[in-house]
Amino acid sequence: MRLERAELLHVSLPLITPFRTSFGTMTSKDTFLLHIVTDRAEGWSEFAADPEPLYCAEFIAGAEIVIRDFLLPRVAALRTPTTAALAPAMAAVKGHELAKAALETALLDAELRAHGMPLATFLGSVHERVPAGVSIGIKDSLPELIDDVERYLAEGYVRIKLKIEPGWDVAPVRAVRERFGEALPLQVDANTAYTLADAEHLGKLDEFGLLLIEEPLEENNLHAHARLQRRLTTPVCLDESIHNARDAASAIALDACRVINIKPARVGGYPEARRIHDLAAAHGVPVWCGGMLETGIGRAPNLALAALPGCTLPGDTSASGRYFAEDITEPFVLRDGHLPVPTAPGIGIDPLPDALARFTTARRRLYP
Ligand code: OSB
Ligand code: MG
After folding, report:
1. Where is the Mandelate racemase/muconate lactonizing enzyme C-terminal domain (predicted)?
2. 101-150 pLDDT per residue, tens
3. Distance of CA 363 to the CA centre of its chain
4. Domains plus CATH for the chain?
5. Ligand 1 center to residue 246 CA distance, Å?
6. Ramachandran class of 287: left when φ > 0, alpha when ψ lies in -120 to 50, beta otherwise
7. For ligand 1, what atom is nearest to the CA of residue 318?
8. Residues 96, 98, 104, 109: what is their CA dihedral angle, to the nearest 10 degrees?
């Protein structure tokens, strides 16, 4: 396979409702797509992070520079750019997992399309459809939250995740439990909003039988998460703190988490996500596929990952309609609480030319 062309398309899609977390409020999904053309096939990917480095250290403008100036030249220098050769070629560049994932996924898409193989087959996925959970942002009031949960459950979502922060934690969890009962699969995500000094307060969540509490403490502090886990019966799940399989191995060894949220972008791509899945499965640690409010271009490959056998908890891969009035691809539609795993080669989906043209705000040639 020979790299012939690479371009980056900035896109902006309005969200149907603002999404508020402990780190900020999003009203639109602003990101870029990578489009690469090889002599054999074309490939697409979506950068997962936001314009500002609030969820993670990476951000759109920085990633564009990293890809253009440091990653792509290393890939273009390969005699035969294959997915397997990519990670070693990019390893000299420290960090920047989300930028690396974008480039690797676009190339993987092209490589798989050239072989006529769906990503799900490449990864070893075992399900044709995956159960969908939904992540619900912080609301202005409890009645507003209850309305949202009610609506999502009526649509068929099989698991509810509540975003929490100091001042919005025990009360919303209690309100949802009281209204919807013990049996509702329920979990929370703090996005690093607490410190170990809050351990006793977080312990108040134990009585609600949550599936997990996601990233309660500061990013990368495995030691503090292990100390917190010792004081909670609710399983700690790590998101922000897991950047690769090495981190996952350390976190499991330290008992810093008992569940892992795998976001392929956050760990540098699908092959590394698969390694984390395998490592966790070998330790009996359940994993699930997270999300970053992706358009269809980022959602499609995540559904393939979510269909791996070790993804035993429902993920955050919700239907397109939970985020956008109109997606950039054919929308993913919830049926019976599940989303279909794409079956076409590569990521299994393409941007719709008309939607792509309307959502694109800038287009930049990266190579040659
Ligand atoms: O922490 O999982 C997170 C969205 C953006 C950034 C971080 C997170 C999230 C979500 C939403 O929780 C998941 C989704 O619906 O895509
Ligand atoms: Mg999270």
Report:
1. 143-235
2. 999 999 999 999 999 999 999 999 999 999 999 999 999 999 999 999 99
3. 24
4. 3-116+352-367 (3.30.390.10), 121-340 (3.20.20.120)
5. 23
6. beta
7. 15
8. -170
